[in-house]
TrEMBL record, chains A, B:
EC class (word): transferase
Binding site for xanthine: K156
Species the sequence originates in: Guopingia tenuis
Protein name: Xanthine phosphoribosyltransferase
Record-level GO BP terms: purine ribonucleoside salvage; xanthine metabolic process; XMP salvage
Keywords: Cytoplasm, Glycosyltransferase, Purine salvage, Transferase
Amino acid sequence: MKELEERIIAQARVYPDHIIRMDSFLDHQLDIGLLDRIGAEFFRIFSGRGINKIVTVEASGIAYACMTARYFDVPVVFAKKAKGDSIEGGLYQAETYSYSYNGGPTLLIAKERLTARDTVLVIDDLLAKGDTLHSLLEILSYAGAKVAGVGVVVEKGFQEGGRLLRQEGVDLHSLAIIDQAEERNIRFRHTSEGQ
Amino acid sequence: MKELEERIIAQARVYPDHIIRMDSFLDHQLDIGLLDRIGAEFFRIFSGRGINKIVTVEASGIAYACMTARYFDVPVVFAKKAKGDSIEGGLYQAETYSYSYNGGPTLLIAKERLTARDTVLVIDDLLAKGDTLHSLLEILSYAGAKVAGVGVVVEKGFQEGGRLLRQEGVDLHSLAIIDQAEERNIRFRHTSEGQ
């Protein structure tokens, strides 16, 4: 997505260890017009697949999921992250799907929110190692929900998450794939795959 | 907001200790059409005040802030919650406003996201004791930002947060104020104040 890449070039800040901060427009502070056009782009890519639900993870995926959901006119379900050892006050323990991939945060979705009748589009803002998405996809498989695709706003192409997910047959589309990130040099991947 | 109250009556579930779950349409699963109309309602209430930024707290305020921001066509800034003892990797320690009200979670906003030139509308989904909103308002005062108003989707009128904030002169509007919540009986407040 050209506008997204241009904004990243103009406003992203790269720190040591390939940390890319996009706090002035994509995270912490959100440019709502850009987010709306991102939602429209996900709709363009994934429409016509019978999607009846957008699924994401709190917190930074929520904005993108909502903007996308407006175009699809379907609900958004967001997985919550377990805080500490207790799962959401115990009240839902028997009624919740939960999974933690690779020692990452445990994700929780109440069972009544997802069933085998659902065809979902997964949306998230950032893909790096892919732990979060792997956890989410595991939960979706417990529920029996069909995954029509996965939309990511920014993929760090120099980390393994994207490669692993595509290898596993996930239909992953990232609106910008950063293959190289240095302080004065951000290089995007442009291929037919995932674009 | 009549539609909101009708949905709460129809779909909210009340548990012991006045816990009100709205997981099928306002939290965890979001009815995007309803959220859009909530955003429109906040715009109707607060437009014409020179608002240039919508401010909220992760995670559940984000969806409402985004839908509202679409109507105002202004950015959204969301405060983050400190995870454990370290503040966001230390990188921002000197550059962050932080505050914890009443022993609640420490909220963080990067200093460059808010200045004395900003006129903000604060949006949040739920108001009970008011700890989160008090923390947020404290941070906004550090930044010197003007607070044009506070919009809340659901206020638990039987808890003190709303009363305290109004007493402090905050221009607080809640789209639904629940004064009584029992298993088969939810009663809303209908006054000119805050509606």
